[in-house]
Amino acid sequence: MRLIGLFVSLLAARSTKRKTSKFVKKEQDRLSIHNTRLKWATETDAVVLIDLENVRGKSNFDLTHQELLRQTTQWVQMNELEDKVTFVVDHGSLHTAYYLQEEKLSLVFAGPRMKADDVLARDIAFFEKNAIVVTADNELMSRCRNAMSNSEHDIEVAFIQPIKFISDLKALDDKLARKRLEAEESNDNPSDTETASSSDDDDDEISQELANKIEEEIKIRGAMYETEVQMRTKRNMNTPKKRRKLEKRARMLCERLAMKGGQKLDHLTAINGVSDYDKKFQDEVLSQWQKLRKNATRREMTGDRILLAEHFRRQIENVAIEEESKEEQSDTEMNHSLRYVQHIQNMLGNNVATSMGSGDIKQIGDDSGSEGGNGPVRLVIVSDTHGYEESLTPKGGILPRGDILLHLGDFAIDSSVKKQRSAIERFDGWLARQPHRTKIVLRGNHDPFSVQFPISGANFFSRPKSIAIDGKLTITLVPYSSPRNLSSSWRKLPMFCDILATHSPPHRILDKCYNGANAGCSAIRGKVERMIAGPPYLWLCGHIHEGRGAEKHAFGLSPRETLVVNGANANEGRATHIEAGPIVLDIDTEGNIKYVEGDEAMTKQMEKLGVESAANTEVEVVA
């Protein structure tokens, strides 16, 4: 028995040793992989893109934006990655970019309409270089790989886990701190760290009433977000009773937020005079909120991150302006980071459409004549042409000029595959003649799922997608689909958009068929009524030919009315010809809508609804 016990203990010891050696080897492999990637980045002149909020999340949000920037600057210098590193930050009041000369890196803020993931997926191939992305988001990794594989250049992407990145930053920071301490002790120089940190305590604290209101709004918004997540995840596992409870809770939270006047976050981060507070007061509150978060007992929520990111953006903006005033850039060949920052600034200044999704929105024509993104965007709307699109532009003419051409679906004909293919080719040629810089086509119920427009380069959408215009206005695109598929796609749609473009109209609004039935989509209407930040300013649709027209409606609990426009061009019933022309609308960044052009019946409806006319207003559009 003693021999058996000894044998068992030897086997256990060997197994433990084997497991330990495997663990050590695994850790060594991780280190070697990390070091190999950094070496690869240096040797191949690769860029490094850091998903800042993802990194902060892996530190349990213990790392502040400022602390992460400071530690990363040290890491950049140690690894000789100057002018190759870019932070991409969620939130901020603007989609903008800054270059810091002293730190030798750049920062991009996604703004209120996009996420850092969308910016990374859109721009990772911009550098035309190999890239390393610091993130743990598997979906973002997949999107980055797809973007690099679709690039014309032979470039690769690798990833570093944020936990490893954070441990490297901490190890380096501790090492440098010990060196500074040793230098101070040897020189007998007292540290001024405590003096610097104590100076912040002299600032006036924000009123307790305002702090309580902000805290309450953040908690309500967090609860609303969690409810939305529960409603759209594991949908098949949610019983009807559970879904009704979640929907009831969402409505109650919306009512509670409305009763609290829950717009403090928006007013504290807004710029350009659209806030209840001036910039000085905003800066004071944002600064104080950062201090309150250091001593907070509850976990950091999305509302906190909105405030903290805007405070960080304003600090970076001030530093960037000071550095720019000290020294003008005179480099004949710009580095990667500065070139990317100027690309972002030029893109926003030149009124270019940018994608929130895969980053493949194509622009048509020369944008050099555009005056910038501060004026209204002109939309030209057509729908349900069913192969008769030439009737909209007789004798080889063109549609009215505008920034974006929106075809809301049903461009194909009901015929054999050969005839349908020929009709789509004619439609592509017709699109190519149109003078709009961006052309968007939604799939209708008569259209195929996959279509290419090689001549016009138009963007075809058969799945829900949101795109941003100039980083200010957002359009959510919802092509035709079954209610079940639409319900499963809600996770891809935002909680707010400025413009909603769908093939189907909302249920009971501009959706009455010739037989008297209401054929609109209740699934889309339900989503709009549950949008946390309120319904869109403008809802464009088609599908029901008899429903062409305009109507104003207040969705959900919001007092704001949405202008719903059905732009179907075909005759009533089965399409045999075109009866109505295109509709042209202007919309600015404040959601103000002006009616520019349409047929006589549409003009009368717009006048009846009180929609301002812009017929005599000149708007700069791209030829």
Task: Describe the protein's architecture and organization.
By secondary structure, this protein is α/β, with parallel strands linked by helices. It folds into 3 domains: 29-169; 211-344, no CATH class; 351-365 and 375-613, Purple Acid Phosphatase, chain A, domain 2 (4-Layer Sandwich), CATH 3.60.21. 42% of the residues lie in helices and 16% in strands. It is built from 17 helices and 20 strands. It has helices at residues 2-43, 52-58, 65-78, 116-123, 138-149, 162-187, 193-198, 208-232, 240-259, 264-269, 279-294, 302-326, 336-349, 417-433, 483-488, 522-529, 600-609, and strands at residues 47-51, 85-89, 91-100, 105-111, 131-134, 157-160, 353-355, 377-382, 404-407, 438-442, 459-461, 465-469, 473-478, 499-502, 538-541, 549-553, 562-566, 583-587, 593-597, 612-613. The chain has a 7-stranded mixed β-sheet. A 7-stranded mixed β-sheet has the order 11-10-9-8-18-19-20, covered by helices on one side. Helix 4 runs parallel beside helix 5 and helix 8 (208-232) runs antiparallel to helix 9. Residues 22-31, 191-203, 328-332, 349-373 and 618-623 have low confidence and may be disordered. One of its GO terms (molecular function) is hydrolase activity. Residues 378-546 form the Calcineurin-like phosphoesterase domain. It holds the Pfam family Metallophos.
